[in-house]
Protein 1
Amino acid sequence: MKRRKAISLSAGVAGITGLNASNVFAAGSKRFGDTIIPPSKETGKEKHVPIIDAPASVKAGEPFSVTVEVGKTVPHPNTVEHHISMVQLYMLNEDSQFAVNVGTFNLGPTVASPKITVPVMIQSTSTLYALGYCNLHGVWDYSVDVKVG
Ligand SMILES: [Fe+2]
């Protein structure tokens, strides 16, 4: 099965979700439930992108740290009126059609910085997907591959 760069997140389902080829839209766009996300033009500089920091290669079953940060290069506002309300991390391994929710982190405005770190263990080469939710500008995504070797 060919790997796809899109995942589908069913509304209200925070656990296991399905992949579907129909989730791929215009080049680089992705669909998350009813939300279509256009390709980021300035991924590294966009204040909403949830940048993932993870090792490129790990050992099977050994915990490693994954950090997801929104506003890493350009700070995002953190006020009651405009803030990152949630960060989610998903994992899809090369042998599965289903993305698994690694964690969902609800963030309080003004007091919680939109940066989370979580220990992760994988058994085979996987793709990590992060979603960042801005209360004004919607959901943004980012992904990285982590090899097991
Ligand atoms: Fe925003």
Protein 2
Amino acid sequence: MRTEVAIIGAGPAGLLLSHLLARAGIESVVLETRSQEYVASRIRAGILEHSSVELLTEAGLGGRLRAEGHEHRGIYLQWPHERHHLDFVDLTGRSVWVYGQTEVQKDLVAARAAGGQAVLYETSDTRLHDLETDRPYVTYVDAGGVARRLDAAVVAGCDGSFGPSRAAVPPQAHQTFERTYPYSWLGILADVAPSTDELIYAWHPDGFALHSMRSPTVSRLYLQVPNGTDVAGWSDARIWDELAGRLGHGQDGWTLTPGPITDKSVLPMRSLVQSPMRHGRLFLAGDAAHIVPPTGAKGLNLAIADVALLSRALTALLRDGDAGPAERYSDDALRRVWRCTHFSWWMTTMLHASGDPFDAQLQLSQLRWVTTSPAGAAGLAENYAGLPIAG
Ligand SMILES: Cc1cc2nc3c(=O)[nH]c(=O)nc-3n(C[C@H](O)[C@H](O)[C@H](O)COP(=O)(O)OP(=O)(O)OC[C@H]3O[C@@H](n4cnc5c(N)ncnc54)[C@H](O)[C@@H]3O)c2cc1C
């Protein structure tokens, strides 16, 4: 089989890239190792920044997002006995939207199906070849067990943190920057109306907690837990008790309403950047190139921003014969990646308990500054609501 762009991975990065390329008249084939149902049901990110919403809307994917998503003006930051609201719209003129990654994925799958896109699910043994030539190809085994070869002008590695694309770049041709954190998040989904109108980020000496949501009837909450935590040790009652304590149940009349928990998982926290994001005719995008801890709500937004740049670069390369934007893709994308990597690290280290009393005082000092200084508040707001995609 031959196509213009072989896309590995049918997560948000891969499907959005195929969608944007198709709008520019460029053909692609998407290979995905999991089933369509599995990819569609993965519960992950839930916050879209301003630029992501604009891009999805311009790409014709904003209908359900704007009808069923919820626009938030800002977030709450709190610590014991104090809660402050940061209004991003007042501070920067930009808002964020609550719209689950599962919904983004559904919209992308529907748009690609309507466009007749070839998405090959349940493939295995994906291997990348001849990336340093202008005739790269990918071999794989299809869902029926038949070995196949896909020839392309370009390979887009959109296969997340465990896919083969990142590893296909030879060790001497890249650098990996990495930070692991000594804590994880225990995340739950609960069939209960959120107890807050906007997200609450709570610093607490027992550990960070976050009250987020997916819809008016579904809440998403997180607790900082030690690495290696087994969810089996966390009963529903223990989780709600711990959330109530850390989120300040009873503080100034605020109450946390518990409800049936429908999903529990533990998410380790790490930062990783592989640089450059291009090797010959292989271009990396999304989690294939970088991972951020979820505290800054940046993972999905970075994947969207990478793909916006990459689709423009590949259009210039394959339609106009202009290799300039493709040559600059890695540098352009990495500028934003490092800004978001810093912001995610900064939010993470400001809000998670380390057990060190000196750290705790620094964190509280920083939180007081961010919530009382217009300059401090604007800095957080500008990064959280997101920088323009070209920036
Ligand atoms: C458990 C979890 C929770 C998260 N929570 C949040 C959150 O709360 N907030 C936030 O902002 N971000 C969160 N993230 C991050 C966010 O979900 C990712 O940044 C986002 O999914 C990146 O999209 P992507 O398309 O680059 O990668 P992915 O969504 O990982 O998609 C990559 C795809 O490639 C496929 N693939 C892998 N190997 C192969 C192969 N060999 N051949 C073909 N296909 C392959 C995978 O099956 C997958 O479908 C979370 C991530 C995880 C893992």
